[in-house]
Amino acid sequence: MIESALVNWSRAQFALTAAYHWIFVPLTLGLAVIMAVMETIYVVKKDGFWKNTAKFWMKLFAINFAVGIATGIILEFQFGTNWSNYSWFVGDIFGAPLAIEGIFAFFMEATFFAVMFFGWEKINKKVHLASTWFVALGSAISALWILIANAWMQHPVGMEFNPDTVRHEMTDFWALVLNPVAVSKFFHSVFSGWMTGAIFVIGVSCWYLLRKRETKFALASIKVAAIVGIVGTFAVMLSGDSSGIHVAKYQPMKLAAAEGLEDGGTRAPFSIVPGVEIPGMLSILATHDIDGYVPGINQMLDGYTTPDGVRHLSAEEKMQRGKTAIDAFAKYRTLKDSDPQAAEEARQILDENVNYFGYGYIDSREELVPNVTLVYWAFRVMVGFGTFLLLLMIVVLWMEYKKKLVNMRWLQWVSLLSIPLVYFCGQAGWIVAEAGRQPWTIEGLLPVKAAVSSVSVGAVQTTFFLFVAIFTLFLVIETRIIIKAIKQGPKIEEQKGE
Fold first, then answer.
1. Closest Cα partner for 421 from 380, 386, 397?
2. In Å, what is the CA distance from 25 to each residue of 21, 72, 100, 471?
3. What share of the chain is helix, strand, coil (3-state, %, to 5)?
4. What is the 3-state secondary structure (H, E, C) of 414-466?
5. Which residues pair with residue 273 across a beta bridge?
6. Residue 167 pairs with which residues in a beta bridge?
């Protein structure tokens, strides 16, 4: 019970800090692009109205950016405090992209942020525009390296296990960087940030319309944000299609959980909600072939053979091979100095079964199935809210084009009240990604219960509630500061052109 409690509390703490951090990250990614587009319009048109429009959204960006940094630092520290076994086991691999992110991407982002925020009247406006775009680029590159690290946990590549150091060690850096899961995850996450930024800007701008304030500013902001958001959302859909292919190939249990698919096969149906299905659609989404084979939860637990003759082991077979790998590893470590020949034989057995090493820590087949209800509904929240928000942006942009939006108070209210929905959408996406690969910290290699630190449950509980208080305080403070800045509004008196 103590071990189970430690794992659960450690998971809860990481989920808490990750969820809070992801409140700030997508808005940073989206606002960075929107304000850069606005400043580009200013430089091209030489119209001071656009300069002050960009400056207003830049102020909100700065507030959000600062809090995002604080939550991100706390999040990364947990790898050393709560997940030290994980950090030891794969630190050489996982730490590399995080180090690059800190040294290169964040450094670039922070440096150009200072130039952007404080350099308006001090440097050439084209140089200033470049610094703004570099901040946007730096934000995306920063996300890239973090997502490369996360994608490696979803689909580990470019490494091999060294039984002498008891670590997985990197053998191919570019395999890590060009991991197909990382590529699709990067575009999916970054463009979802565009959508978040767009809905935020549209919602806040509609608040001004409801208050009959700064109408020109609000309508101009809505137009730019809606275009960025629509482009971003279609890109999210395209990258989501690619991500679905990768999940089906590398994490079929996650796909089955997201669909509540107990028994799969060819022409697998896509579940809209329980009892409502589209025949063959899941096969199309997962394989781009209506006759494509998609295994269900039962097939993966019992073992199955695909139509092209590829056999997949049952849960029990994987667990047995995992225990064989662990036993061979222990034997190798014991005999490598006293009996090199026996140690080499053990090493060969280990190498033959090392891909199932993590399964040796699994006690029952039920552990291999994630929380199907949670993953299933999180996926539908993500897709459902995302579809609604795309339609909302299209309608808002069309109504603005027709010069009708300014009088459509119901649409303004819907836009304002939709701001929380985009955050639910983003959080749901990460629930699918992370809860969907349980029980694994690293897919197929290291289960969560073998990755946790040897700390007391009480220590994790204490820090959990401490983080609840700190992060909630961060969120309340940021929200109050942003609301105050919104109420103050842009500096309209300066919007006379230049």
1. 386
2. 7, 9, 18, 14
3. 75, 5, 20
4. HHHHCHHHHHHHHHHHHHHHHHCCCCEEECCCEEHHHHCCCCCHHHHHHHHHH
5. 276
6. 162
Q: Which residue has the tokens 């022409």?
A: 267
Task: Return the structure tokens found at 231.
Answer: 């482009």
Residue type, 480: R
- Residue at 194: amino acid letter: W
**What's the length of the chain?**
498
Q: List the structure tokens of 239.
A: 């990258």
Over 30-45, what HEC string results?
A: HHHHHHHHHHHHHHHH
Token readout for 406 is: 């300014």
Phi-psi domain of 160 (left: phi exceeds 0; alpha: psi -120 through 50; beta: other): beta
- Classified as helix, coil or strand, 268 is coil
- Phi/psi for 183 (5° steps) reads -60, -50
Beta carbons of 405 and 441 less than 8 angstroms apart: no
What would the pLDDT profile of 360-390 be if each residue is shown by its tens digit? 999 999 999 999 999 999 999 999 999 999 9
Q: Which DSSP letter does residue 269 get? A: P
What pLDDT, in 10s, does the model give residues 251-294?
Answer: 999 999 999 999 999 999 999 999 999 999 999 999 999 999 99
Other C-beta atoms closer than 10 Å to the C-beta of 121 total 7
